[in-house]
Structure formats: structure tokens, C-alpha cells
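Batch queue: ligand-bound targets. Current item pairs a single chain with flavin-adenine dinucleotide. No template structures supplied; prediction is de novo from sequence plus SMILES. Inputs echoed for audit trail.
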Amino acid sequence: MSLKQSLKHILIAGGGIGGLTAGIRLARAGFSVSLFEQAETFEGFGAGIQLSPNCVAILYEIGLARGLERLACRPERVRVRHWQSGRMITEAPLGRSIEASTGFPYFHIHRADLIELLLAEALEEPNLVLKQSGRVTGVDSDLATEGSHTDNIQISTTLGRYSADLLIGADGIHSVVRDYVLPDASPAFSGNVAWRATVPAAKLPPHLRAHQANLWWGPGAHVVHYPVRGGELVNLVCVVEEHNRANESWHEYGRPSELLARLAGWHEDILVLVKAIDDEACFKWGLFDRPPLQAWHRGRVVLLGDACHATLPFLAQGAAMAIEDAAVLTGCLQHEPTHRAALVRYQKLRLPRTSRVQSASRRNARVFHMDGPGTLARNLLSGAALGWTARWLYHYRSPV
Ligand SMILES: Cc1cc2nc3c(=O)[nH]c(=O)nc-3n(C[C@H](O)[C@H](O)[C@H](O)COP(=O)(O)OP(=O)(O)OC[C@H]3O[C@@H](n4cnc5c(N)ncnc54)[C@H](O)[C@@H]3O)c2cc1C
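Prediction returned. C-alpha cells below.
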């Protein structure tokens, strides 16, 4: 009996970027899938997300090329500047040359737009059932014990109890499913807070609306901004070091005036951007991460995306890693003879790469926020570092 025949039904907890991608891929591979999302609707929340060619390749495969062209922006380059003088430190191409070398473009997109595109594909899949307001509240460990000698797994949700042959935890950084796989592995506050906002482009001068990624390095802080939604909005992220523990929440408002005070002395362009933020569009997001988890599965339960490798956003790879996970996990379930072999192979293929991304992101926090004489060497090496990152990160393709 093939694995597809024995895995009659798969449950996914979480309908974010990773969960929806996995649901679509698995349904198309012939698996029967139910996806539980805690929110009442799939209406995406959040702000801008970067999609590099390593994940755009997968999104194109599932049919998102036209939608991305319509809703996303193609940055020409990434430009790094000095926080105070505005002097350019380095720049690297993201436009045609990245597309020519990797085969796929680099995009900036609003998270809500990406969720909308994924949802449209998901709704077309007869093998995929979407269950909104379906918060997974627990995994019944009595039926899926270590080593998985049992035939199925049961979960409790706000919609009732369900059973299946496999549960995928794609339920984000505060994953309930992770608590079952590896208790006591919650992420920790990194000492950085990201202020995030989308600003109407019409409120900004033309040079702040240009289709490029802008990165400003300063002592104890950095700022990123780029256009999304076809250029209608500019996504602004200001990351500042803060010792007080902040909430990891996409729903916590921040006051632009507080951010403005924190960025006193920064270049006029940054102040113009912050002054253009509407109060109700300003969010304060505590950044959490954690050392790599060494176990991504237990019995018939497996994790993907932020649930297993919450990553600081300083390499812009959070969404990309969840999308890659979804593709690799589907490939392993298609090609391995047992679910056990598939999950072992999946972890073996993904753990080294996501661990590398986690540690490179953490290193970037130190590099971006440097102060003092060390910045001279950093600035001299920055062009080479950007080129090296693009090579190992953007050329990745799913090995299964
Ligand atoms: C509301 C929101 C807004 C975000 N906005 C941005 C952004 O603007 N920029 C950025 O870089 N990153 C953002 N992120 C983070 C980014 O989406 C992830 O880092 C990345 O996409 C990894 O995707 P993921 O699928 O692993 O997790 P997520 O995208 O976090 O998705 C997890 C999904 O699981 C659902 N969920 C959680 N717990 C349960 C449960 N117990 N049962 C059922 N469903 C559950 C959540 O509602 C969510 O839809 C946001 C995350 C969220 C949840």
C-alpha cells in the first residue's frame, strides 16, 4: 500500500502562509486535507512581506504568477544607507539580474494580498476543506503516542474533535501543536521591537516611493521600507532595541509619536516616513526567536514554518521558509514509503537550512545595529556579504 493510500486524511492547524501553501500542495498531490484556521475569516492581517526567488519558485508552481504580478511590487535593488547622513553604504541588484540568475523574480507584497492569492487557489481544491473559527486547542496524546503505533491522531478544536492520519502544525509562533511535539520550547523575546506601518504612497515624495528595498543601519536600530500593493502603500519597519519585554502580537498598536521620539536624530527621509503614519496603522511587534528545535515531529504530528523555527525578520525569510517547508514536506509524503520515513527525511532536509537562516538573521541584528569603529569594516564588507547571502539563499530549490 502506498503512503497516499494509508494517509487517508491529513489535518493542518493554521491557515497562514505556510498552512495554506501546504494545503494546496498536498491536495494537488492527491491527499485529502482539512485545514483549521482559528480566525473567523482568512482575511489577511499584517503588513509587507518579502518574497525572494527561493519561495517565488514554489508560488509560481502553484499558479500564483499572474496574481503576484498584479498585487506585488518588483524592487530594482536593495540600497543600504547610513542612519544619520543618508550616505549610501552599499547596494545590490534585486531586479532583472536576480531573475536572470535564479530564474524567478523578487517581490514585495502585503501579507493580506498573499493570503488572498493563496486562498483563491485553496478554494479551487476539491481535496482541501477549509474550516474557519477552528482553533486547535489540543492534541490527544493518548491516541498518538511516541513512535506512533496507533492508527490515527485526534485533535480537539473549537469546532469539535477530529481524527486523521497525520497532523501538520502550521499554527505560527505560539503553536499549540509544538507544545505537543516538544513541550517547553516556546520562543523568547529577542530584545528587539519592530514598529510596523503601511503609509499611503500619495503622502510621500517620489524618491520614497521608488520600487526598491531601502535599509538604514544605525546604532541600536535599523529601518526598512519598500512599496507594496502595486505601489499604493509603502511598508515601513523600524526595529529598535528595547530591554522591556514586548508582546509578540500583530494586533498591538503603537503611537507614531513615541517612535518619532525614539528615532530623533535620524535622517530626514525617515522622519518624513514616520510623520506620514496614521495612528490606526501603527503596530508594535515584539520580536521573538529561539535556537533551532532538534525535533520537528512526534508520532503522527509534524511542524512547519514559525511553529518550529521562529526567525527574526532580519533576513526577510520568515514567509519563504514556511513556503519551502510546505513544498519539501509534500514531496517527502509523496515519495517516501511510510509516514515515519517521510517525516524523518523532511526534518533532515529542512533543519540545516532553517537553522542557518535563524542564525544568519540573529547575526544581522548585531551587524545592522553596530556602533563605533567596527562599522568601518562592516561597511567595507557589506557589498560582498549581500552578494554571498543572495547566492546561498535565493538559489535553493526543493530537493524532492
Ligand atoms: C496576523 C499576522 C500578521 C503577520 N504580518 C506579518 C508582516 O506583515 N510581515 C512579516 O514579515 N511577517 C508577518 N507575520 C509573520 C509571518 O506571516 C510569518 O513569519 C511567516 O509567514 C511564517 O508563516 P507561518 O504560516 O509559519 O505562520 P503565520 O503566518 O503566523 O500563520 C499561522 C496561522 O495559524 C493560525 N493559528 C495560530 N494558532 C492556531 C490554532 N491553535 N489553531 C488554528 N489556527 C491557528 C494563525 O491565525 C495564522 O493564520 C504575520 C503573522 C500573523 C499571524
